[in-house]
Amino acid sequence: MDIESARRLRKSERGQTLVITAVGMVAVLGMTVLAIDIVALYVAKDQVQATADAAALAGAEALANSGTTSAPSTVPLSTVCNGSSGQADFWAQAVVAHSPIAGGFATATTSCSAPTNTNPRIQVTVTRTGLPRFFARTGGGLSASATAIAEAYNPSLDLNPGPPIQIQGVKPWLIFNCNTCGSPAYFTSTYGVANGGTFIGQSVALTLMPSTTQPSITPLLPPSPPPPSPVYTTSQFYALDLPAPLSCPNNAAISCSQIGTGPPGLYYHDNIACSGSFEFGNNQSIPMPSAQVDSRSLGPLQTRTSDGVRCLIHADGAGQGQDTFATGPPVTITGGSNNPDPALRGVSIHRSDSIVTAPVFNCPTAGTCDGTGAMQLQIIGFLQLAILEVNGGNINAVILNAAGTDPASTGTPVTGAGASPVPVRLIQ
């Protein structure tokens, strides 16, 4: 090829590099935008799964608070979860409604089941349609969906030895599982606390007993003043001297001026108002080195009981601004005028400082069950209580749920922190 021919060939190829570069840039840009779409889709899928998990756990919390794990005949599962209007459905849907995904909101479907001899569970499926697209905008929109299943775990429903429960933040009230020593137990079943018992939703007046009292010869003490309708069933409890709590409300909080005031080393009233550090669990007995029945006389213990409960429920007496409870089933909660969160006052809420857990001990069939240390007081379960008021050391409450401890349970403990003795956990 001569010089002139080569010059003409180079001239004819001018601009081709620009064209190739432009085409390559379009391809790279397209792949980049496609990658953005793919990444956005994966992020949305993660968000949908996280929302489904949170919604399922919220629904399981409703199951745990309702009493259906302990009394399905009294609180049928269908009244708590029916796919539309149950409390578990409502709580799960509320989580989804407040969880935006990729700039928009998802829809959710719920369903519950209670296979034979297993804990009740809720399944939540969350779907987000119409996800934003940056590439190939034509055609249908992208969508993401995820399913989660959570259960309210009560070991007394598990016929096979399952993991034990350990509960932190339990209130220092050791409740008698009987009227008097040697009398029939209130809560009787495989593990000591009833399933199917009619005590769920029952009003109860807890009467403080001094540690030297033998209930087998001591008459029951009625609440003072006489309780309003419905009539309360009276049960007895010992005050427990437990280690110092983890955290307490400020002394300036409503009715909390006596919290943290001692006497030094005795934290009974502080453990009522505060978050306790002691972990209760399966097969424990009182006394033990770090948990004893409080040996102070009845008068000071009654005063300390009232001080602790008033701080806990943010009120000095009946109808003084504490959260209120309407019997169901299931029980519903309305935030009181003294609720620490102003946004929760006067509206339906799903948790309350007035909901607590307390241990139950199995009364001996003979002899004494005093708390002097002469006999071990075996914990056989836990009651979940909604506190209504305190008067003279007597506590008026409603029984929301119960959990028995399985003496054959093994494995890693399931920790149930917070108000309920029935922990919730994801199982799928």
Features:
6 helices; alpha+beta; 428 residues; 25% strand
What is shown here, in short?
It contains six helices and 18 strands.
Structure description:
- This protein is α+β, with helices and mostly antiparallel strands and 428 residues long.
- It has two domains: 137 residues, no CATH class; 263 residues, no CATH class.
- Helices cover 23% and strands 25% of the residues.
- It is built from six helices and 18 strands.
- The strands form four sheets. It has a six-stranded mixed barrel.
- The longest helix is centred in the first third of the chain and has 51 residues.
- The protein is elongated, with a radius of gyration of 30 Å.
- About 5% of the residues have low confidence.
Helices and strands, with pairings:
Elements: H1 3-12, H2 16-66, H3 77-80, H4 87-97, E1 107-113, E2 121-131, E3 142-152, E4 165-168, E5 173-176, E6 203-209, E7 233-241, H5 268-273, E8 279-281, E9 285-286, E10 292-293, H6 298-313, E11 324-326, E12 332-334, E13 348-349, E14 355-361, E15 377-391, E16 394-404, E17 414-415, E18 424-426
Parallel strand pairs: 4-17, 5-14, 6-7
Antiparallel strand pairs: 1-2, 2-3, 3-18, 4-8, 5-7, 6-16, 7-10, 9-15, 11-12, 12-13, 14-15, 15-16
Helix pairs in contact: 2-4
The H-and-E topology, N to C, reads as HHHHEEEEEEEHEEEHEEEEEEEE
User: Biggest sheet: strands, sense, closure?
Assistant: 6 strands, mixed, barrel
Structural class: alpha+beta
Query: Runs with pLDDT <50, length 5+?
Result: 213-232
Strand order of the largest sheet: 5-7-6-16-15-14
Overall, the morphology is elongated
Instruction: Give the tally of β-strands.
Output: 18
